[in-house]
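Problem 12. The chain below contains 133 residues. Write out its predicted structure in C-alpha cell notation.
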Amino acid sequence: MKQRLLLSIATLLVLGACKSPSVVSGSEYNNSSGSNVTKLAPVASPQKAAASTPSKSQNNTAVAIEKVPFVQGVSSISVERMAKQNQCESKEGAGLLTPKGPVEVYRVECDNGQVFMARCELRQCSKMASNQQ
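Solution.
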C-alpha cells in the first residue's frame, strides 16, 4: 500500500514538473493573472501563402514552386553519365533530391529544358519513368 502511494505521488511530481506553458490564440490572450502564457501570431493559410508567391501554370492558376537546393550525392557522377547517354547535357550535374541513404533519387536539369531523373539503390542506378511529353 505504501509503495502504491509513493508511486502515485512520484508520478504526480514528475508530471507536474513536465507541464508546459499553456498556448492560446491572440483573441484569448490575457496575462493579467500572471500565468505563464505564450501568445501566438496569426499565420496565413497555405492557400493564401501560395497566392502571395504565384507562378503561372498552363491553366493560368497560381502554383507555388519549391526550390530544392543543389546537393551532390554518392552516385551523382553515375547519374550524370546516364543522363548524357540519354541525350541530356547539363552544366550543373545530378542533384540529390532525397536524404542520403540506401535509396536515393537524383535530378538533372538538361540544357534543352527536359528533366532526367534516376533512382539509385545501394549505388545501382536506373532511369525513372519520365512524365513529360
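Discussion. The helical segments are 2-17, 46-52, 76-85. Students who got a different answer should revisit the alignment rule from Section 12.3.
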